[in-house]
C-alpha cells in the first residue's frame, strides 16, 4: 500500500475503500472495547470478520486498479491471504482462541508497517502533516509487537490492546482516504494549470510570430514563403 500515493491519479479514484475500511475498523474497536468482559470467542469472531472484510477491500482495490497500479499483484496477494485467514479463523474458532494474540499482533504489525510507508509517501508528495500518520504507524507497530512478544498477558489486556490497535488503524485508514482524495484534486488542478499555461504561451508565441511577419517587407515575405514551399516540397 505504500506505493499507492505515488501512482497516477486514476488509482486514487477508489479512495473510498479506505474510508469504508476505516469505519468498519473503528466500529469493531468500539464493540470490542465496550464489552471487555465478553467471552474470548466474541473477540476472535470480531477479529476474523474484520480481517476477512479488509481482505475483500484490498482485493477489490487491486483488481480495479490493475492497469494503473504498479505492483498491484502484491496488494491482491495480501488481500487473498487476509480472506483465507478470515475463513480459517471463522471455520476453526478453537485455533483463533488459542493463537488470537499472535494472529492479531502480526496482522496489526503488518498494517503498522504499511502506514509508516504511507507516511513517507505523503512526505514525498509534499503533505505537511505526514508526521501524524507516521506516529499512528509507529504506535500501531509498538502495540502489535507487545502482543507478539508477550502473548500470555491476560484476556482483558489482549482485548484492550486489540481495541486500541483497531481504533488507530481505522483512524489511519480514514485519514489516508481523505489524503488520497485531496491528492487527486490537487493533481488535477496542477494538470489544468499546466495545460492553461502551455496554451497561453503558445498563443502569445503565435501572435508574436504573426506580428513579426506583418512587419516584414514584401520581398522578405516572398523569400519566407518560397522557403516554406521548398521545405514542403522536400518533405
From TrEMBL:
It comes from the Bacteria. Residues 199-230 form a coiled coil. Keywords: Coiled coil, Membrane, Transmembrane, Transmembrane helix. InterPro entries: Acid_resist_chaperone_HdeD, DUF308_memb. The chain crosses the membrane at residues 15-34, 40-61, 73-92, 98-120, 132-150, 156-176. The keyword Coiled coil applies. GO terms for cellular component: plasma membrane. This is Membrane protein. The lineage of its organism: Bacteria, Pseudomonadati, Bacteroidota, Flavobacteriia, Flavobacteriales.
